[in-house]
Amino acid sequence: xxxxxxxxxxxxxxxxxxxxxxxxxxxxxxxxxxxxxxxxxxxxxxxxxxxxxxxxxxxxxxxxxxxxxxxxxxxxxxxxxxxxxxxxxxxxxxxxxxxxxxxxxxxxxxxxxxxxxxxxxxxxxxxxxxxxxxxxxxxxxxxxxxxxxxxxxxxxxxxx
Length: 160
Prior knowledge:
The protein is an alpha/beta fold. It has 5 helices and 8 strands, in the order βαββααβαβββαβ. Keywords: Plasmid.
């Protein structure tokens, strides 16, 4: 997987998904922003910021909703740590397909941003080819990179 664009160390990946599962309690969606450093076309995730840490009411409707002040806190954290938002990730109760709300309300509306969706409220196992992986193209247009394509974009294991 030398061509992987997003790398999440295995321990961080498993901890982060377990935390999403805990926070959602199999009753509602939960989400996080993945932050890290980008270099030579590869982005290494080193920090997760959970939506409800930015806004304690983020899950009150049953789906993930963040308002402008949450993003102020997110960008502030990025500036303080020198990290960038690499992707966002949230859970769904069933399949990892984008909902109408996901398509029309991107968490980060910058072309090239990656949105990941984990099925079954992040109850394992978590296979990359079973994630929803979507690249925002701008103007509410997305490219679906799910399935086996995701394995070339996302690496969640041990690497050098």
